[in-house]
Amino acid sequence: MDKGDILKEFGKNLRAERNRAGLSQEQLAEKIGVSYGQVVGTIERGETNTSLSVIVAIMDALDLHFEKLFDRNKFNRKI
Fold this sequence. Notes:
Layout: H1 3-20, H2 25-32, H3 38-44, H4 52-61, H5 66-69
Helix pairs in contact: 2-3
């Protein structure tokens, strides 16, 4: 799995968890302190390699454990 695949897989998991929480991209953006919902959209589409601080903010906003956004078996290689 290459870096792009990892970003897309993370984004897919994020979208599923955001939808499960009943939040729009804009609502999640507000909760994590980013300026607009498009940031969340680029993460969900795997178009950006976001910072760890944003990932932690997402996990806090959605009340998720790390494992919900990352399936370590799928990322079983060095980048």
